[in-house]
Every structure is written in C-alpha cells, then in structure tokens.
Design a protein that fits this description.
Chain A is α/β, with parallel strands linked by helices. Chain A has 11 helices and 12 strands.
C-alpha cells in the first residue's frame, strides 16, 4: 500500500559532498568548509548556557537577538530577517512558500544542485528550467530574461564556478522577472565589499537574499542561516518555519560569531589570500582557473589530464575535492580553499601529478 | 503582486506558548518543559567539540551515532530511525511526505494544536477532520474508525488531557485505518513502562512513532527529536529532510543525554511523583484532575471558579499556565509539572484563590 504523496517515490534525493569520519586523516576540500575554527569567543556563551541549565527551556522562537544584530549590521529592520536552521531551511521554506501546483522555477545551470531537488520536493508537479551558462561560464541574461516562472534562483557568487556576476546585470534581471527571486549569497563574504544585494531589498519587492554562517563564519557544524526580504514577504514565509526552528546554542553562538567581526574579517582575508596564491600557482602549471569570488576555485587541468583522474588521484592521496559530471562541469574540478598548509600540500600533489603526466 | 502559493496568505500560523525573557522571574508551567536541567555529562562533549574547533566542518548528515543509540535502546534497526530538528520537524516532514492535493487528515480533538496547522501548511488543499473526544475525554474509537483519510495523527499520551489510551484500542484503530498513522509520543516517558507503540512498528507497516528530547530529557532548547517506522518508510521521508538537519552539538548532546539513563530515570521519577502529589492536593481542594500519564495535568476547577479567571490570576502572580478556548478545553487549565518547589508555590496560590472564591 502506498502511504505517501505519489510524487515522493520518484524523487532522487540530494547528495551532499562526502563527509569522512573525523578520525580519518583527510584534507577535506570538497564541501567549501572554512579551514579555520570559529571565533574563540563562542566558548564563554556556551558555558554560561550549560552551567545555568538553560537548555531545559524552549529557545526564543524567532531568534530575536540574532535578528536584531543582523539587521543592525545590514542597516535593515529586524522584521526583514528570518533566521533558519542553516540556509538550507531558508531555501526549503521559500520554495514551499512560492510553489503551487505545476509551477516553474528558473535557474542558471550549473549552479547549487539543491535547487532542482527543492523544486521536486514541492511534490506538486513543479519543475525547473535550467538555463545553461554561456561558454565563458557567465549567466546567459538573454535566455534568463526570456524564461518565465514563479521563482528565479541563483547563487551569487555562483557555485561551482565561483564567478560573481556584475551587480547591475543581476538587478536588471531581477527587475524584469515576473515572480520571486532568490539570490543565494552563501559565499558573498569572499567577494569584494559591496557585492551583496541586501542593500537592494527595499527597491525590489520580489527579492530574497539568503546567507549562511557555515562558510565565512566557520560554523558549518552549527546550522544557522537566514533570509532577508521585505517585511511583508518575511511575515508570510515565517508561517512555514517550525515554531522553534533554531536551537538556543545555535542562536547564541551565531550571535557571538557575528559580533566578533575582527576575527571574522581576518579569517576571510587569509582565505582570499590563499585563493589568489593557489590561482597563480595552478595557472603557471597550465591549469585554467576560473576567476573566483568565493572560497573555492573551479579549475580546468591542462589537456593531458582528465579531471576525473586528477580527482581520483587526489582522493588516493587523502585529499578530497569535488567533481561534477554535468556537461559543463565535467572538464573541471572544484577545490575548496583550505588552510595555507593544506593548500601547499594540495599544490604539491597536483604539481607532482601534472609533471608525471607531461613526461 | 502575489509571489506566493495562494493558499499561504490565508494560513493562520501556529502560536507556541508564551516564552517570557529568561530575566523575568516567572514560574513557567505553560509549555511542558522539564523543571530540571539536562544531564551534567553533556558539558564534556560540548567542550571537546569547541576546543577542537570542529564546528567548522559539516555535521554527520544522518546523525548516525545517535540513530544507532536510539535503535539499540529500542531494539530496532538504525535504518528505522530518522533524527530531526525537534519532533516538530519530524511531524512537518511526515505531513509533507503523505499529503497530496486535497487529502484528508484525521485527528481526535482537542489534541496537539500543531496538527491542523501542518495540514494547512501542505498548501495543497488538504484538510483535517477533527473527531471530538468523548465526554470522558477519551478517544471516540467508533467515530475515528469510520473517518477516512490519508493520515491519522494522535498524541499518546494525548495533550492537553494527559490521558493514555489503552494500547489494544490504539492498535485496533491503527489496523483499521487505511492510510499512514502518526503516534506522537512526546510525553510517553512519563507514562507507565511498556506504553510505547515502538515495539509494534514491525507489525504495522503504516505506523510512525515520533519522540522528542525536549520534555523527558530536559532539552527543549536543543531541538532534537526523531521518528521511527519501517526501513522503507524512513528511507522515503528522509528525502524531505534538509541535508544537515541536525547540528553537531545537537547530535552530541542528545547522544550523551540518552546514554545517561540513570539521570534521566531519576528526573522522570521526580516529575511523576510531583504530578501525583499535585493531583491529590488539587482533588482535595475540589478540582477535577484528569488522570495524567504526562508531565502536565488538565484540571477543572470547582464551580465557583472560571478557568480563565484562575489562569489570569496565576499570571498576575507570575505563574504561567495554559488555557485553551476550544469547546472541550474551555472548562480546564493545563499545568506543566514544575519542580517540587514550583509545585508548592503554585498549589499555595491556587489554594488561596479557591478559598477566597468560596467565602
């Protein structure tokens, strides 16, 4: 007997990047985590919650203090912020809120591979139109503008390319799109200052911007993200969140991490510097490295090397990177920027392999 | 312009019980939290995660260790367990997984007031048939068995009554229902041993049992729950969870709390004892106290007292309890069992008020 919505049976689940056990001695450059630990200041607030036994009580249902701090930092009102269980929950809520029966989602392709899964998980016949990137891996604005749908979603910077599109082109696209638009800024903190679209929210009533503490704040293990839009939009999508969707420790830790801007900025700076160094080194070795504004690089090896072979070789050397098999990505591998030391080890292995292949 | 699924606009959001600021000196007996702190053993595992900076990495996506511990404790396989961000997420996932366009949910009434909200939040025209409790506040099995739907959901023990239905009657109902059945065991640890339906899972392919760490494990602030069913059912509904739905600290803390059974059992025993004492005291004062198998009691004051007045009076005395205005509940107030001291203060206030009203 079939107990479920009939569409559930055919859904292919999302596959996150491999998570080796923490005991494996692996250099993990496959899921764009931050190589540096989160702010040391979080320890104190955690100790205080535990020693007072506060976990026995429900958390603040709206993550109010964290909302306020985010709003202050961005110069918006706290009613424009919804804090979520990772930005994954923000995306899931938005897709559910927007999509009615047989609606269309529009997205560039390739991009974050969760968007097609979320579309299918609406379980109501909604489908996604994937608009291929141009040959230079930039958005195809002509095709995106002619696509029609209830929701347009893209990542800025995009994944897996790391490319940051020009702001004015994004804004023109948002203005022309007759539906809701999600700009997923998971990696925006690694892009130049002023790249975010949050400041444009009040001029674009259809715009949602999502963010996460997973990458730039070194808190992938915590699960806190947020989404920003107009007050009216946030009020509506909030109906879909679980009453207590973000735990007490999560709220407190994210708040402390956000307050510790000097630590955050110094970490981000280190990663940007490693990214630029690795980009130069690999370019010299004959790799094409897509100019990245994120904490990862998308690299095409020289002709003598198959990307999948390099991926497998690195894996055997206990270095995990990411390979995607779609038509555009198949010529590349994606490498998360690790610590300075991890980048050196990675580059050493790649160099050794490349030289061997060229002999 | 309307950006959302048109059904979203009319949804009335779920209202959780009031959460006063932790600085208010309030005796909080309105949301069935545990008055005692969680196991002191959780501190060590949290310290270890923080001092090793592990939060920078993604958590285990399937809460594997916690699943295994739950499976071992219940004598089932770990593939039968899905760990969630509070049992709220388990419920939300199950409703979304089951409900197609215009499907029906069946539930006794009153019960946990989230069920109607989750039905509406499917945003696909699904509706709920509320089957009123009998005059003695027990389930109306004749009416429940004749109701047809895609999902039957009930709480065991029920809320806000605290009543535990007879196991054989529940099993007969589950066998006769032609659809999925959710047995929500948020309060089962306060009921006599052997009351759970988890042991019946393998005999009832349509049965799901949800649990939470919020109540009996004193971890409402943490947000961890789980749902148990057949391996096939769990595999299907897992498609709907976010990739990393439970954070690293949550997984580790819940695991430690679960392992510390002596502490857990002693806490539960204290609450049961306080519940029985308060039941006796209030009964002597002329209240009708519904026999409770949960960590709260549902009490009808003597004729001279309006429940809503007593609720307001207690609130003025900084004691929060819960009042529900539906046709059946309106004659009662629901009181969560606090610490021994909190119960004494509460009883003192009620006694004082009752004597004043009888003069």
């Amino acid at each position: 007997m079939k107990y479920f919505n009939e569409r559930l049976y055919d859904v292919a689940p999302y596959t996150p990047g491999e998570q080796p056990s923490s005991k494996d001695r692996v250099i993990k450059l496959n899921t764009n985590e931050n190589p540096y630990p989160p702010s040391p200041k979080i320890k104190e607030v955690v100790d205080s919650i535990l020693s007072e036994g506060l976990l026995k009580k429900y958390p603040n249902p709206n993550s109010s203090k964290l909302c306020e701090e985010i709003a202050n930092k961005e110069g918006i009102s706290k009613e424009q912020v919804l804090v979520t269980n990772g930005s994954d929950e923000a995306l899931s809520i938005l897709f559910r809120a927007v999509l009615g029966a047989n609606d269309k989602v529009v997205a560039p392709y390739p991009t974050y591979s969760l968007y097609p899964v979320l579309t299918e998980l609406a379980l109501n016949g909604s489908s996604i139109e994937k608009v291929p990137l141009k040959g230079n891996l930039h958005f195809d604005y002509i095709a995106l503008k002619s696509a029609k749908g209830k929701l347009l979603t893209f990542a800025s910077p995009n994944a897996p390319t790391g490319i940051l599109e020009r702001k004015q082109e994004l804004l023109d696209l948002i203005s022309s799109f007759k539906g809701a638009v999600l700009c997923d800024e998971a990696y925006i903190d690694f892009a130049p200052n002023g790249s975010s679209l949050i400041q444009e929210i009040n001029r674009h009533p259809n715009l949602f911007v999502s963010r996460t503490f997973s990458k730039s704040y070194s808190l992938a293990g915590l699960r806190v993200g947020y989404i920003i839009s107009s007050k009216e939009n946030i009020q509506l999508i909030t109906k879909l969140k679980d009453s207590y969707n973000v735990g007490m420790l999560e709220q407190a830790i994210a708040l402390e991490a956000l307050k510790d801007q000097p630590y955050f900025l110094s970490n981000v700076q280190k990663i940007i510097q490693s990214r630029e160094e690795l980009t130069q080194q690999l370019s010299k070795l004959g790799f094409y490295v897509v100019p990245s504004s994120a904490n990862f690089i998308f690299v095409k090896p020289p002709k003598s090397i198959y990307p999948i072979d390099l991926f497998e070789h690195l894996k055997k050397s206990n270095i995990l990177v990411r390979y995607f098999s779609d038509a555009i990505s198949k010529d590349y591998i994606r490498i998360s920027i690790g610590s300075k030391e991890e980048c050196e080890i990675l580059f050493g292995k790649i160099k050794e392999y490349t030289i061997a292949k060229n002999v």
